Amino acid sequence: MGQIAQxxxxxxxxxxxxxxxxxxITSRLPQIDVTYGGIAGDRHFGLTKxxxxxxxxxxxGMEIFNRRQITVVSMEECAAVAEALGVPEIRPEWLGANxxxxxxxxxxxxxxxxxxxxPSGAGLLCxxxxxxxxxxxxxxxxxxxxxxxxxxxxxxxxxxRRGIICIVxxxxxxxxGEEATVTVYED
Amino acid sequence: MGQIAQxxxxxxxxxxxxxxxxxxITSRLPQIDVTYGGIAGDRHFGLTKxxxxxxxxxxxGMEIFNRRQITVVSMEECAAVAEALGVPEIRPEWLGANxxxxxxxxxxxxxxxxxxxxPSGAGLLCxxxxxxxxxxxxxxxxxxxxxxxxxxxxxxxxxxRRGIICIVxxxxxxxxGEEATVTVYED
Lengths: 187, 187
Fold this sequence. Notes:
The structure is a homodimer. Chain A has helices at about 75-85, 135-145, 150-155; strands at about 5-15, 25-30, 30-35, 40, 50, 65, 70-75, 100, 115, 125-130, 165-170, 170-175, 180-185. Chain A has about 190 residues and is α+β, with helices and mostly antiparallel strands. Chain A has a single domain (about 5-185), classed as M1 Pyruvate Kinase, Domain 3, CATH 2.40.33. The radius of gyration of chain A is 16 Å and the shape is globular. Chain A starts with a strand and ends with a strand. At the A-B interface, strand 6, strand 10 and strand 11 of A face strand 6, strand 10 and strand 11 of B.
């Protein structure tokens, strides 16, 4: 019936920004401010972006609306992927995460159209699974040089566990340590 | 696996704009130009909107991102709802449709993240089912005053057949009579 069937609370474990030159790796901050288009100064900020391999229905490089504004991952899924890969940990930084939640384990299965709402009033609109690609796998590999084939294995083992992409639906601040509410949209 | 599993072609039966004062009813044009935010001059145009009953997770009237930029319906679903209600036809105008397609019957079941692509290069990003509400039912009732309880029955019988809402992902023109391509995103 397309209703909001359930609400869940979770904890914001960390908030991060991709503000390093030539890198998607993110860095922790006490708080981020999200606005329409994402986080000012972040690599993925903007109401528009250039079409890439994930938008292969458009000519490469064409300007399109940016629905990949914010990347959210869960601590539990990071731990599950680390376990599957046989490494001690996968840090959200290595995945380019902007928001890390704890207490909503199956984040990647969150349906499109669901929201994550924060105490400031900020709201993120779920645009679906973030398809794993090799680049975070390469970063993981660089941290564990003695473990074989992590780049390729990451793509395989991170399916449905690599978190989601979001549009900023309502601007506001998001702070590490606060509680958030997930409103699940059920089709 | 979150891939584009299938592409379908369909025909643009009509394009329409909601440019009448105080009404969501749309009017046909030979062509519309979509840009980020929708169709300039349309009632639903804008990168932001005011939160309403469909966004009850936000305080009423708060400015939020507008994911309800474009309304798309299919001729086949309009006909199916008309049949279920026992009326000769339901015109897309009465539903406030901006784009009407023919040849992709189960439009409302199109998954979020799918696209409708047009010859100009314009692209619409599916944001999911348009939940039926009473207002179009009231319009239908006004056209068939002798048929009982059409407003309420519309809400019931239009479930999963009332079309979808879209974000403009790539600006461009959309013209009546042209072919479009639907790329289905499969989760």
